[in-house]
Design a protein that fits this description.
The protein is mainly α. It folds into 2 domains: 3-33; 42-115, Alpha-Beta Complex (beta-hairpin-alpha-hairpin repeat). The protein contains 6 helices and 4 strands, in the order H-H-E-E-H-H-E-E-H-H. A hairpin with a 6-residue loop joins strand 3 and strand 4.
Length: 121
């Protein structure tokens, strides 16, 4: 069982035993189940290189669908992360700087709208 699973199990047991209440459990577990940041990229375990998800998909280190999902998470938390320098940029800038390929744009626009909100007339 992983450390995180043990933490969840301990909190569940403590709550059932009446040692902590539901609010206390939520406060303790929130850092593990929520957040406002996303994973920036991957590190190749063999050569130590850092790759963006788009690069990793191009090199077939991850599936294209996984790369898109991870980039959607980045965009939904405020922008595309450049794993090499830690900078966050808007989707349009990420595409212009080749951090994200043009063919991913359609998949990522909805996540950007979710972050920015939609303007209604």
């Amino acid at each position: 069982m992983s450390g995180l699973s043990l933490k969840f199990e301990h909190q569940k047991t403590s709550c059932k035993a009446g040692k902590v209440n539901e609010t206390q459990v939520k406060e303790k577990l929130l850092p593990f189940i929520g957040g406002s940041s996303a994973i920036g990229g991957i590190i190749h375990v063999t050569n130590g290189q850092i790759y963006s998800f788009a690069e990793a998909a191009e090199l077939r280190l991850v599936k294209r669908s996984i790369a898109i999902e991870m980039l959607q998470a980045q965009v939904a938390t405020g922008g595309v992360l450049n794993p090499k320098n830690g900078q966050k940029c808007e989707l349009r800038n990420a595409i212009q700087s080749n951090l994200v390929p043009n063919e991913f744009e359609m998949h990522l626009q909805e996540a950007e709208k979710a972050f920015k909100g939609r303007a209604f007339k």
